[in-house]
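Example 9 (inverse folding). The structure is encoded as follows.
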């Protein structure tokens, strides 16, 4: 009797959602989604609070264009967080779009093609802040583009 190794006839994609390749268990997806929603709410709320209190404490005065950009960004982050808590498809798509935008912006900053002035947080080293941002937003893009995650937003 000869032993033969059977090869699977079905092709496996390296990034498919099959259990063999998926380091995340689908039961953890709601926890991840809620955690990201909470992070977005916190980022938006802290930024909005900073915008309101820093000028009152004479810590930082921002040019109107920077103030407006940060205000819109913080409100968007809050709305996206609320939308993710409620599994809204527009929130998932908005988060992916802005995460991609942030990644491109941070890369341009690293390449010295773009420079910002008037940052709200000045006590975190810029390189660390930008690297962490690229990592976080990269994970966001990968996770929220997964087919199984997309399906949970189409309820």
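The amino acid assigned to each position is listed next.
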């Amino acid at each position: 009797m000869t032993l033969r190794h059977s090869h699977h006839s079905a092709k496996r994609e390296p990034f498919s959602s099959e259990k063999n390749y998926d380091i995340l268990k689908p039961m953890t997806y709601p926890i991840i989604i809620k955690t990201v929603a909470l992070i977005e709410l916190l980022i938006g709320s802290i930024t909005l609070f900073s915008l309101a209190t820093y000028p009152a404490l004479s810590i930082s005065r921002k040019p109107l264009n920077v103030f407006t950009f940060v205000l819109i960004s913080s409100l968007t982050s809050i709305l996206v967080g609320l939308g993710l808590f409620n599994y809204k498809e527009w929130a998932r798509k908005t988060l992916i779009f802005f995460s991609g935008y942030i990644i491109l912006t941070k890369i341009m900053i690293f390449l010295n093609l773009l420079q910002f002035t008037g940052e709200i947080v000045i006590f975190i080293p810029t390189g660390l802040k930008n690297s962490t941002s690229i990592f976080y937003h990269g994970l966001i893009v990968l996770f929220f583009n997964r087919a199984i995650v997309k399906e949970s937003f189409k309820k």
